[in-house]
Amino acid sequence: MASIKSMDLEPSDELYEHQRIKCDPKQALIRIDKFLIDKLEKVSRNRIQNAIKIGCILVNNGEIKSNYKVKPGDEISLVLPSDPNEESAMSPEDIPLDILYEDNHIMVINKPAGMVVHPGTGNNSGTLVNALLYHFQHHTLPLLKGNKEDRPGLVHRIDKDTSGLILIAKSDYAMTHLAKQFFDHTIEREYIALVWGDVDAPSGTITGNIGRHEKDRRQMSVFHDEERGKHAVTHYEVIEKLYYVTLLKCHLETGRTHQIRVHMKHAGHTLFNDLRYGGDRILKGTIFSKYKQFVDNCMVIMPRQALHARSLGFIHPETLEKMYFESNLPSDFADVLVKWRGYVSSRKDLMIED
User: Which of 106, 155, 322, 346 has a C-alpha 20 to 30 A away from that of 131?
Assistant: First the structure.
């Protein structure tokens, strides 16, 4: 008998079935598509052949053809979306979508801050998934199985109070192709973040395993013990220094839950107004006088963490064309930057007068 086990997953990747299958030493020669149909539940031959074509199914770490016959001792690894024909219990809702691009295979959406990506505990409606189910009432989206919820069409996700770009797959082939790109870390993702403090270096890299906080399961933490958490890498570059805060570009090499938020806090630069990680209070500057009122006003303007998924680059699953999309900063983020620039300008004026 072949043994099956799950692979190590990232938050973006855990939307997919990642498995390794070790063939028995007495395994008979058999075509790999037939072999996998027997081993995996509810997986069609067409889905398996698509995955082989894209390179999502490897044998002994090498790509194969669809007529490959498995041999004793073969190690098969898979990156495979769940069955697109399963029924979802979620309800369609007529929620407007800001669609930047759409064709027969993919869709790129600009998600507003405050919209939950998929239903979960306490968020059974008003999510992006509810909106997608309404938009595609006459089209079956590929359905991915997460730890608890089904996620129709979702290739990846961003936090509720993070704004910006999300990529949607409209077919099983597109989902499988994009899954491979996420798994290979070839998807380009750039975020804009406003963080507390003066970031000294013009650029840098933060590396540290990310896992659940020991006491607060709603938070993530950085662990330097290799046995705890999952490997995570964030690259950043300073865009603008605004005295007590700094505007950054962040590039994700990996895609862990809350990765930028956790890594920046670990580096001593918590995201501005990040309630979950303590950025919703003054971390730099005085807590008295007009400055406190100024910060409070900024947090009223942008009542969420200052994080925006600005750009997304990937290979189109059908045309193989390089696709690249950008999203302008939403008004709340842009308005807060104007406020901070005004604050810095007023400080410079006072220094000149002195």
Answer: 322
